[in-house]
Each structure stands twice: as structure tokens, then as C-alpha cells.
Amino acid sequence: MFRRAACALAVGLTLATTSGCGASIDGVTGISVTADGRLLGVIMVCGHDIVGAGLYEEGDGRQEDTEIGEWTPDRPLEAGLTTWPLDSPTPGWTATRSPGPLADATVYSLAGRTGDSSWSARSIDFTTADRDRLRPGRVLYEDYSKDGEEVLRLVPLPEFEATACDPHTSTLR
User: What is the pTM of this model?
Assistant: First the structure.
């Protein structure tokens, strides 16, 4: 978790690829739920196209994170907001791998990505307890405070859409 936060902070502050941290950030990933409690992926693409998303189960420090879900939209996601259910196929998306039920006390990470890994959407780390506190129309996502501390934000979907890519209200710079 510390490694991911340090890398995201470095990328967010410099907007340049740094060694060991991966792609530059040009979007923000979050989670929400439907009215019947199904988990939704949420991506606000700020500029560059995003061509897919992956859900990872965090490793224990000795092993790598394991991808347990993978989704590809029929067309690359362009600037703007997109949501899709993580538990079943949906029109416009192909699920290469479906995650199945999520386990308690496990940390998951959802992130959007490009085909060549040159850009990505900032990931969201969450547990089933985080998911359980969600309500329809609200988005949980990760951001960084002005002093570089990782913070989880839970905001109405319209606020997420209006501010996630704004460098004046977000650390996406």
C-alpha cells in the first residue's frame, strides 16, 4: 500500500513517468453501487483514452498483486465519465475475467489503463467494508491532500464528475 501511494504521489506531482511507478495519470478510478447493491466501476477520463480496467487482489508483500477481474470496453473510453457493473457482463463491455464474490479483510485495487501502459487512471484501493458503506449516486475514490497524504473521498457522482480532472480541486496535476 505504501509503495502504491508513494508512486501515485510522485506521478501526480510530476505528471511524468518515473522509474518503478509505471504510467502517468490522466484519469481517476472509483467505485459506487447500484440501487440493488451491485458494485460499479467508475472512471473519469481526463484526456487520453483508457482501453480497459483491472481489479487486483493485493499481495501480502512477498507476492505480487493478482488480477482477479478484467474489463474491456467496446471502444476506448474518451474524456468523460463511465460506469459499469463489476459482477456481470454489460452491454458495451467484455469481461475477460470476472472477480466473483469479494472476500472480507482483503484489499482490492481497481484501475483503468491504456493498451501500451503509457497512461492510466489513478486506482482506488478498497475493502468490502468500504464497499458496504457506499450508497447509489456516491463515488469513493483516492486523492492526495496538499501535504501529500493519501485520502479517501466519498462524494456525490456529479461532484466527482465535475472535480476529478480539475487541477485546482484535485491533485491530478
Answer: 0.81
